[in-house]
């Protein structure tokens, strides 16, 4: 793959936990479009997204996003990324609308019209004034994904998008992911435990199972 066409470059990444080494001098180049990170529970999918977001720092190696290296200018790198861990409780006290209202200041390509479309597509209108801790797991995922897709971020990271979703929401999400991936200059990396058919994956990264 031509490095000049890359949006995200990972070079010689090393990271692990005391009980398991996850990556040793691992490199990958990701272009614009949608990339699937495929792996079972314990394979490191969420950890990889945290590393790509700059929330967790690698032991060594470099991450470069649209020409900005994380180790050289972390704020400029991170402001190009949308990532929200669906397992985090950091947003619990905020209402859905309060959280969404805080995001345009952090994402310069925020698309309010896209958010409105995702509210309709995911049937989120009844939940806008609820605190995130009050939402079901599926509704919470839809709230996070609506924001991710509307963010316009150069790198959008989404973890286990189908968890807890009803069939209508899965169908809407498939189309919304395809539409976002087609936007010029955007890279979506979606982590999931099984192949997601019906999506135009530009690349599939398979993580080895936990030993």
UniProtKB/TrEMBL annotation:
ABC transporter domain span: 8-211
Keywords: ATP-binding, Nucleotide-binding, Transport
Gene3D superfamilies noted in UniProt: P-loop containing nucleotide triphosphate hydrolases
InterPro entries linked: ABC_transporter-like_ATP-bd (IPR003439), ABC_Transporter_VariousFunc (IPR051782), P-loop_NTPase (IPR027417)
One GO MF term: ATP binding
Name under which the protein is recorded: ATP-binding cassette domain-containing protein
């Amino acid at each position: 793959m031509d490095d000049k066409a890359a949006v995200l470059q990972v070079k010689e990444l090393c990271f692990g936990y005391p009980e398991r080494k996850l990556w040793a001098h691992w490199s990958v180049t990701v272009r614009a479009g949608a990339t699937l990170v495929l792996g079972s529970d314990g394979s490191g999918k969420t950890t990889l997204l945290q590393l790509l977001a700059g929330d967790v720092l690698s032991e060594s190696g470099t991450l470069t996003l649209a020409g900005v290296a994380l180790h050289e200018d972390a704020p400029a790198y991170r402001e190009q990324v949308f990532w929200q861990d669906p397992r985090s409780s950091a947003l619990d006290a905020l209402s859905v609308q309060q959280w969404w209202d805080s995001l345009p200041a952090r994402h310069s390509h925020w698309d309010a019209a896209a958010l409105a479309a995702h509210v309709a597509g995911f049937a989120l209108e009844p939940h806008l004034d609820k605190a995130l801790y009050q939402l079901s797991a599926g509704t919470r995922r839809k709230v996070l994904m609506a924001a991710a897709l509307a963010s316009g971020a150069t790198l959008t990271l989404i973890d286990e998008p189908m968890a807890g979703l009803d069939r209508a929401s899965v169908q809407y999400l498939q189309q919304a992911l395809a539409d976002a991936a087609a936007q010029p200059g955007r890279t979506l990396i979606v982590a999931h435990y099984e192949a997601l058919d019906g999506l135009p994956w530009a690349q599939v990264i398979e993580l080895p199972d936990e030993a």
